Amino acid sequence: MAAIDFKQRRVLVTGAGRGIGRAIVDFLDSCNAKIVAVDLEQESLNKLKQDIPTAHTLCINLTDWEATESILNEYLESNDVHHLVNNAGVTRLASVGKVPLADYEFVFGVNVKSLINVTQAVVNQMIKKGIQGSIVSLSSQAGMIALKDHLVYAGSKGAVNTMTKVMALELGQHNIRSNCVCPTVTNTAMSVAAWGEDDSPLATEFRSKIPLGRFAEPTEIAAPIAFLLSDMASMITGNVIPIDGGYTCQ
């Protein structure tokens, strides 16, 4: 089977500076993609630029709709983007009845509102220029099954799952594909904040429910994303794909 080769096509990745986002960038770079890295933290982008000098970096607060739209539109007017990875995401955990408004606004502002805004900016330019390409959005297994204390986060990822299908339905006529992946707990700083260290009781209990018996590594999320973006997946669109070690098969 041939290796994935993006042939210098440009991929825009949000939340690119750390965790799964950085793993995605590194994997795509190894597949001969041109990287456009979007992140909130300039320091993370500086490190990325040192490691991948050919990458173009954009420091954007994605919760600011107008600023995001303006920065992206300015870049996209003169640069073709063929693929989009909606990776930026945040979490706040609280049980039903104890969710503050600030948590709802923060989580939905990043996980849903900014995804719509970024996707629209990229897709509008793709359609205008006649570019055929693909989108992969990061959801979560929490968007597929119920997890305690995940009311707001799960709601935001359930929205991503359904939006993925709507985008596939509407953009198919332009030969733009849309899929999303639903990772299990992945070994990143964000997961540690939610689940504790690897040997914590909460992490140990949850890991015992995964048939493969472990959490995912960031590269195990990046590789399927690269496949879905690539021409190898040219007939795959509108799918919500778990990457969860079998958790949701039960």
Report on this model:
This protein is α/β, with parallel strands linked by helices and 250 residues long. The protein has a single domain, classed as NAD(P)-binding Rossmann-like Domain (Rossmann fold, 3-Layer(aba) Sandwich). It is built from eight helices and seven strands, in the order βαβαβαβαβαβαααβ. It has helices at 19-30, 42-51, 65-78, 101-129, 151-171, 189-195, 201-207, 218-229; strands at residues 10-14, 34-39, 56-59, 83-86, 133-138, 176-183, 240-243. The chain has a seven-stranded parallel β-sheet with strand order 3-2-1-4-5-6-7, with helices on both faces. Strand 4 (83-86), helix 4 and strand 5 (133-138) form a beta-alpha-beta unit. Helix 1 packs across helix 8, helix 3 packs parallel to helix 4 (101-129) and helix 4 (101-129) packs parallel to helix 5. The chain is globular. The two termini are 32 Å apart. The model has no long low-confidence stretch (mean pLDDT 95).
How is the main sheet built?
A: 7 strands, parallel
Question: Based on CA inertia axes, which overall geometry fits?
Answer: globular
The percent of residues in helical segments reads 40-55%
Structural class of the helix and strand makeup?
alpha/beta
CATH topology: Rossmann fold
* Low-pLDDT stretches: none
How many domains make up the coordinates?
1
Q: Please state the oligomeric state of the protein chains shown.
A: single chain
| CATH architecture annotation name | 3-Layer(aba) Sandwich
**What percent strand?**
5-15%
Number of helices: 8
> CATH class, please?
Alpha Beta
Mean pLDDT: 95
| Strands ordered across the widest β-sheet | 3-2-1-4-5-6-7
CATH superfamily: NAD(P)-binding Rossmann-like Domain
Radius of gyration: 17 Å
- SSE sequence, one letter per element: EHEHEHEHEHEHHHE
